[in-house]
Amino acid sequence: MERVKLDFPAEAVIHRHPLTVRVTDMNYGRHLGHDALVSLLHEARIQAFAALDLPEWDMHGYPSVVADIAVQYQSEARWPDALMIATAVPEPQGKALTIYQRIYQTESQQVVATARVNQLLIDLATGRPVEVPEQVKQALSHARCG
User: Fold this and answer.
1) Which of 76, 105, 107, 117 would staple 31 via disulfide (CB 3.0–4.6 Å)?
2) Global confidence as pTM
3) Which CATH number is 10-145 given?
4) Which residue ranges run through the membrane (predicted)?
């Protein structure tokens, strides 16, 4: 079986967001379900971009869409575990924002999962992806430096 292996770019972290596993996030195996994990990643990603005044629905005139997602599961989380999600965005290349996220247990620092999302900004008039605007690149660059 081929496994997803993701390298988390710690030098590109722009935000950290605390979350707690809710009882409704549990699956029948009594740990954090994969569907809930994707929702937690989305919440942390929204918070990271909002902190930079870059809402996903209007990144300097362009809404964004998720093109793909990959998740590497590394350990279990259960209710009521306190988690931290670090969001990292390396320098954008071309038309995609590549967003890495690492979920880890707040207390033990045990990694729960690492994810990568490729996100595109869309021109609503054409329905086509556009180059990442310079203002978005600058906001991300400043967040990585601070």
Assistant:
1) 76
2) 0.95
3) 3.10.129.10
4) none
